[in-house]
């Protein structure tokens, strides 16, 4: 089965480079590459895809706003943000909008394939500096009560999800099966009243659950 990918990047050379990387990967196909997201909804109507690579800083409308529009349309396609930014504002704005992962452009050549594979397996890939930033922000938040009645195991898994860990890694760390991880995550979604990993992580960070 072919993996179909859309790319939004305003830098022509980088767009060509990423597109070339994708098309050289066996079983992957670049369905389309665009320099802006001004017609994002129309593009997705004509290009149903398995994954989106999204630049943040583009002319006319930012990638973060495009992610908001995609999620508002109830489209849960995985979206990895590609950007030069590594500050808190852009990180959390992207995650809150519904991004599935966050990768700095300087890491694209060595980390892109790994990040795509991770997000397809249910993870939330992040560049090392981004993961450290999210972890630091989590550690700085004071401990609060448990308003959603999460179990200790569910809290462990939610914290691990917030660090960008994949289901496979969580299962390995906690010495449980992937199916058990999926069951716990289903319960977490139900208790938090969310529908995706990014919504769960965003809510957990915003409400200081982790």
What does this protein look like?
- The protein is an alpha/beta fold and 210 residues long.
- The chain has two domains: 123 residues, Response regulator (Rossmann fold), CATH 3.40.50; 66 residues, Orthogonal Bundle (Arc Repressor Mutant, subunit A), CATH 1.10.10.10.
- Helices cover 52% and strands 13% of the residues.
- It contains ten helices and five strands.
- Strands 2-1-3-4-5 form a five-stranded parallel beta sheet, sandwiched between helices.
- β1, α1 and β2 form a beta-alpha-beta unit.
- α3 packs parallel to α4 and α7 packs across α9.
- It starts with a strand and ends with a helix.
Largest sheet: 5 strands, parallel
Helix content: 40-55%
What is the CA-based Rg, rounded? 17 Å
CATH class of the largest domain: Alpha Beta
Shape: globular
Mean pLDDT: 87
Strand content: 5-15%
Total helical elements = 10
Named CATH architecture of the largest domain: 3-Layer(aba) Sandwich
The separation of the N and C termini measures 37 Å
Name of the CATH superfamily of the largest domain: Response regulator
Topology order in helix (H) and strand (E) letters:
EHEHEHEHEHHHHHH
Whole-number total of structural domains: 2
Classification by helices and strands: alpha/beta
Strand tally: 5
CATH topology of the largest domain: Rossmann fold
Major β-sheet strand ordering: 2-1-3-4-5
Uncertain parts: none
């Amino acid at each position: 089965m072919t993996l179909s990918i859309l790319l939004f990047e305003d830098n022509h050379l980088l767009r060509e480079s990423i597109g070339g990387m994708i098309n050289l990967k066996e079983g992957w196909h670049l369905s389309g590459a665009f320099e802006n997201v001004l017609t994002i909804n129309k593009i997705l109507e004509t290009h149903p895809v398995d994954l989106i690579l999204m630049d943040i800083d583009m002319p006319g409308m930012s990638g973060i706003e495009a992610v908001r529009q995609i999620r508002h349309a109830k489209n849960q396609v995985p979206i990895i943000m590609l950007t030069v930014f590594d500050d808190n504002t852009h990180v959390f704005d992207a995650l809150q909008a519904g991004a599935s992962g966050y990768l700095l452009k300087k890491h694209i050549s060595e980390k892109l394939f790994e990040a795509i594979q991770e997000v397809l397996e249910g993870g939330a890939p992040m560049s090392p500096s981004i993961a450290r930033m999210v972890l630091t922000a989590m550690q700085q938040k004071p401990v609060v009560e448990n308003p959603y009645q999460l179990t200790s195991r569910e809290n462990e898994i939610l914290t691990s999800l917030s660090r960008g860990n994949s289901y496979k890694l969580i299962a390995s760390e906690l010495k449980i099966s992937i199916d058990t991880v999926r069951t716990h995550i289903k319960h977490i979604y139900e208790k938090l009243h969310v529908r995706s990993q990014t919504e769960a992580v965003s809510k957990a960070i915003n409400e200081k659950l982790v």
